[in-house]
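[Meeting: bench + compute handoff]

Bench side (C.D.) handed over the final construct sequence. Compute side (W.E.) agreed to return the predicted structure before the next meeting so the bench team could plan truncations. Sequence as handed over:
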Amino acid sequence: MKIAVVTGASSGMGREFVRQLADRFNGIDEIWVIARREDRLKELVSTVPVRLRIFAVDLTDHKELMDFQYTLEEEHPDVKWLINSAGFGKIGPVGSLNLADEAGMVDLNCKALCVVTHMVLPYLSGNSRIIQLASSAAFLPQPDFAIYAVTKSFVLSYSRALNEELKPRGIYVTAVCPGPVKTEFFDIAETTGEIPVYKRIVMADPKRVVKKAIRDNMMGRTVSVYGITMKAFHLLCKVLPHGMILRIMKAL
């Protein structure tokens, strides 16, 4: 049985990945969707032309993830796509957020991503694909968004290394690094602060970001950056001192 695995599937980019994989790839027999909100996962069932298997688990709870691991071991599926989309961010200076949120970003954005990847790796066959949701925040330290940004730097570095490790198996890994995307992400992020105006101006459509991410992965690209603005930002972060860029951003 050929399957796709999508974490963070109840909303935002994860939900969009489920829809586009279901619409574009006829060879997938099932999509295994993972998120905490079971009701939101059930809503997806009638909206896609592929069977969904629901895993209503908290990815930061290792015991809850065991159900997913046991199913992998029992059914030994052929995993053609792994999409690690689960994650969250909170805005605010380090120390101003509560400890659960600060540690939670690391646990979900980094640790859970590694755990799911580790669990799925034995079931990936040749020409399988992994997409990891990073962020343009990975390119530069982000004052008032410091922990989120560093978790995404982790995802970017991890994904690029993993891509090199898996090349002999014919498995391709892409880190997706969009700028701000119009999803529920900011409903959570802005409970503790507001994003700068310049980020609101460049908000992207999740459908287009996901479409490009899948296309870039199929083309063997290790990093997917959507939009002219974010591509320019990526380039600036490579050629200019980060201290200079941070001063410019602070002045905006």
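W.E. noted at the follow-up: The chain has a mean pLDDT of 91. C.D. will use this when planning the next construct.
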